[in-house]
Write a structure and sequence with these properties.
single chain, Aminopeptidase, 7 strands, 28% helix, alpha+beta, 4 helices
Length: 152
């Protein structure tokens, strides 16, 4: 298994491929047009992880001065629980640290135990709740836990 993590340039981003993977991972996955809009924002970093030259995960990080906000983060469900997401997030955090970033924020569904375990293990700490932030196909809402990683 050959994993490659990289920050992509706008020319390297295939919005359709990102949308396809995002829709596999989330009830309300983003469409290619949404990714195209993010491409126009110079504050957004697109990070990918490929396995044997196939895109298996990505994340978008918005960087404003010394603060980062993880906008979305997904790994193909067929490739989850193999350390791929950890490798991607660790690379992003380390690069952010080397560029003098001070903190990274994110939100995660309260019941997403595997994601929360990953974030906890990397030092992210919960600091707020967004009530009824996520809505699922069955109409049920779920709270989001807002987490922060203070970079040292």
């Amino acid at each position: 298994m050959s994993l490659k993590v990289k920050m992509m340039t706008a020319k390297e981003v295939d919005s359709g491929l990102l949308a396809e993977l995002h829709q596999k991972c989330f009830y309300r996955g983003w469409f290619w047009e949404e990714f195209e809009n993010y491409l126009k924002n110079p504050s957004i970093q697109f990070w990918s992880v490929s396995q044997d030259q196939k895109l298996v995960g990505f994340l978008l990080l918005m960087v404003i001065i010394e603060e980062g906000e993880l906008l979305t983060f997904c790994v193909d469900p067929a490739c989850q629980n193999q350390g791929i997401g950890r490798k991607l997030l660790e690379a992003v955090v380390e690069t952010f640290r080397m560029n003098c970033g001070k903190e990274i924020l994110l939100d995660v569904a309260e019941n997403n135990a595997s994601a929360r375990k990953l974030y906890d293990s990397l030092g992210f700490e919960p600091f707020a709740i967004r009530n009824q932030y996520y809505r699922y196909a069955n109409g049920v809402f779920e709270d989001a836990v807002v987490m922060r990683l203070k970079i040292k």
